Amino acid sequence: MAKFDIVLQAQGITKQFPGVLANDRVDFDLRRGEIHVLLGENGAGKSTLMNVLYGLYKADSGEVTVEGVPLHLNSPRDAIMHGIGMVHQHFMLIPVFTVTENIMLGAETNHRASQSDAPLAKLDRAEVAQKIRDLSHQYRLDVNPDAIVGDLPVGVQQRVEIVKALYRKANILILDEPTAVLTPQEAEELFRIMHDLTREGVSIIFITHKLKEVLAVADRITVMRGGRVVGSAIPKDSDEHKLAAMMVGRDVILTVKKKPAQPKETVLSVNQLNVKDVRGLNAVNEVSFTVRAGEVLGIAGVQGNGQTELAEALTGLRSIESGRFSLLGADLTGRPPRPITEAGLAHIPEDRQRYGLVLSYSVADNMILCDYYQPRFSKGIVIQQKNVDANAEKLIKDFDVRTPSPFTPAGKLSGGNQQKVIVARELSRPVKLLIASQPTRGLDVGSIEYIHKEIILMRDRGVAVLLISAELDEIMSLSDRIAVMYRGAIITTLDRKAATREGLGLLMAGGQEAPA
Ligand SMILES: Nc1ncnc2c1ncn2[C@@H]1O[C@H](COP(=O)(O)OP(=O)(O)OP(=O)(O)O)[C@@H](O)[C@H]1O
Ligand SMILES: [Mg+2]
Fold first, then answer.
1. What is the pTM assigned to this prediction?
2. pLDDT tens-digit profile of 423-433?
3. What are the two backbone dihedrals, phi and then psi, of residue 117, each rounded to the nearest 5 degrees?
4. Is the CATH code 3.40.50.300 the one for domain 6-248?
5. Closest-lying ligand to the alpha carbon of 39?
């Protein structure tokens, strides 16, 4: 079958954005049936390179060939015609449409484009649905063509994106941080699917920041830094520390050092809280807990067990059915976000593009999103531009936000750097309570190291921290106490010292903790 062992080759790819050389003479190749991991710190240029291969960005120079044929990539259509499919870092499906409708959408344009003179043959919905069922069956993707996309868990939405690419006959698949939003179980399932695909001759480019995953699934690893390829590796000759050092250019400490907590007064008190989800079903069930000044309470749980709704309720983003919560004794039940923020809350939201940032605003303006009306930043209606800029410059430096300037729109930043803008803003405000939902999602190991240190510093300054994370490692390394959430309820709360990975894993799955 293989006429060329190398299916895709990119040579000398250069892409300049205003103020950043995102790709600097990048060479990259992909072999048939391999999983090639692309690794690199936030802003290294990974998504840019993939967007060039997918025809979304036009390279300033360089050449891409598929099966030895040079491509003229002017749009994703050209990439798709040559068998390249891509699942993006931020999903591109339309939530109110069914799976079939979503898959038909692009395909119609595709059809029109490739046969512009032919009468536009209408795609038969039943036929498309059947094709989806076949693909779903062949690769064990478990995708129902009639489901409404918005009702599906993210893990399944991602599989819809994969079906969409396969429907368009992709044999080169680009997966840009697919596991960032997946539960460990969903990620395992995705790896199984990836292996099934490669066995059928599909070649995969896989981007992830999780080094354990890299070592588990990669056939080859290419590392980028500052727009350039700086090295390559294969899992059997590598380990997490080597990979981390290669990507960041220094040694990274992968575990957090911290002293035992010195908890003080109760800051957050939650009493028999009940919250419904978007579909009106009970998502949070009679939840009660407290978080004290100077401690980190971690909420462990498989995603979708009410953590998102709990965080939204406590930050004023979702209405509460019954129960109450208070911050330093002040009842805030049912209040909107602003008074809760003013009472001393910092919030790192799970959905950064929806609640965390205004993508069209500059980095500097996003960094004062919660405080813009404070005297420090505005006098009457006059913005104190000097202070706004100084604030941004300090945070950009402290949190190592890679941006050409403080005035760049946040939407132009790489995924991880967008997250860093939110984290920098929220961790730098003088607050009593920090609610951090998936605070390091999409961040590289170097940035995770820094953010973890900052969260512990906040704790040591007397801030109460509620940490919600799907990463068991993160929960284990930051928490002083761990509450396990399952089907909307907190089924147990443990001292960190009494918790083990295995025990937590069992509890998260709704089982009993194994006897010691
Ligand atoms: N559309 C754009 N306009 C301007 N600059 C951009 C654009 N897209 C990317 N950049 C810049 O190019 C650089 C590389 O970004 P890219 O998204 O490729 O990084 P990445 O390696 O995917 O990082 P992450 O791990 O955070 O997703 C960054 O400095 C980013 O700000
Ligand atoms: Mg990216």
1. 0.87
2. 999 998 889 99
3. -90, -25
4. yes
5. 1
